[in-house]
Specification:
2 strands; mainly alpha; globular; two-stranded antiparallel ribbon
Length: 108
């Protein structure tokens, strides 16, 4: 079982669509489908019900999804801990653009 396979499962579960999940993950749909099928074989269970019109989690998929999310979060925390130990600062930075000086500072 690989983290990337878990990312793919989460993406399909969130989009309910293999094509949109592949776009989100920046891979071709066939590669994403292949990796999910490989994971399903390894687990011995189908994670998704697939029809021509919809994709939805099976009961096994519903059980797998929270554990996959937790594993991905744990992997990200582990990466952050290693980076911190190496003296790197990692995280998300949000920037907001404002006009300067604000109109209240121009004497209006």
């Amino acid at each position: 079982m690989e983290l990337q396979q878990m990312r793919y499962v989460v993406a399909v579960a969130e989009t309910s669509n293999f094509t949109r999940a592949a776009e989100r993950c920046m891979v071709v749909q066939s590669a994403l489908s292949h990796q999910i099928a490989r994971l399903e074989r390894e687990l011995g269970a189908r994670l998704f019900e697939r029809t021509s019109r919809r994709v939805r989690l099976t009961p096994e998929g519903e059980a797998f999804l929270p554990a996959a999310r937790q594993a991905l979060e744990a992997a990200e925390r582990a990466r952050a801990e290693v980076a911190a130990a190496a003296g790197e600062i990692r995280g998300r930075l949000a920037l907001r653009s404002r006009r300067w000086p604000p109109s209240t500072c121009r004497g209006r």
